[in-house]
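Students often ask why inverse folding is considered easier than folding. One informal answer: many sequences map to the same fold, so there is more than one right answer. In these notes we will look at a single instance of the problem. The structure comes first.
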């Protein structure tokens, strides 16, 4: 079962009268759930997760439900050797997936394309900023300052509780921004204005 099929199977369980609308809503979340391990998208997880969701779950609720289920896969067991082996395999797959995600997100052009896809919608830009922070913090400077203002709130959704590690981003200089994202009519960014925007991103 792939992730789109998983969302399609989940939809009628949370909105039985409007499964198509629910599937469309849930499907839009998939782009921002790439960091959730594949083990969370199974027939068993549908049965476990569906009763915990509202009829129109928010992205934060969906992520929390998937993360809780993924964490339950690593819960201690009575040292069943077969279960231990399965857990180790899942952990190894997840660690490999993390490496793949870091390599995938280390792509400035891809991040800029995702920024364009967000079409200026701040809620999606902030979600994107949280994912960039987690997988490619060196490219946070590509995000508009407004997307970074409440970044701590987004990080709270994405990073597990108790993880206080915060990578230090490197923000693009005005000259780099002029090259990466030129202003209309050949205008150039003012260094002082860019500095103010960067400071706003740390509020």
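Output (designed amino acids):
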């Amino acid at each position: 079962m792939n992730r789109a099929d998983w969302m399609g199977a989940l939809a009628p369980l949370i909105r039985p009268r409007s499964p198509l609308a629910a599937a469309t809503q849930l499907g839009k979340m998939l782009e921002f759930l790439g960091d959730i391990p594949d083990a969370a998208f199974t027939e068993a997880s549908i049965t476990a997760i569906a009763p915990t969701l509202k009829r129109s779950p928010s992205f934060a609720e969906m992520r929390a439900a998937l993360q809780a289920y993924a964490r339950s896969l690593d819960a201690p067991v009575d040292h069943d050797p077969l279960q231990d082996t399965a857990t180790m395999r899942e952990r190894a797959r997840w660690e490999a997936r993390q490496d793949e995600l870091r390599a995938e997100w280390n792509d400035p052009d891809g991040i800029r394309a995702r920024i364009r896809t967000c079409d200026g919608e701040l809620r999606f830009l902030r979600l994107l900023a949280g994912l960039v922070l987690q997988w490619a913090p060196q490219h946070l400077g590509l995000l508009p300052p407004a997307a970074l203002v409440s970044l701590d709130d987004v990080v709270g959704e994405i990073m597990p509780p108790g993880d206080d590690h915060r990578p230090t981003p490197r923000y693009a200089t005005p000259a780099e921004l002029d090259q990466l994202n030129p202003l209309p009519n050949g205008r150039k960014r003012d260094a002082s204005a860019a500095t103010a925007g960067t400071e706003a991103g740390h509020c």
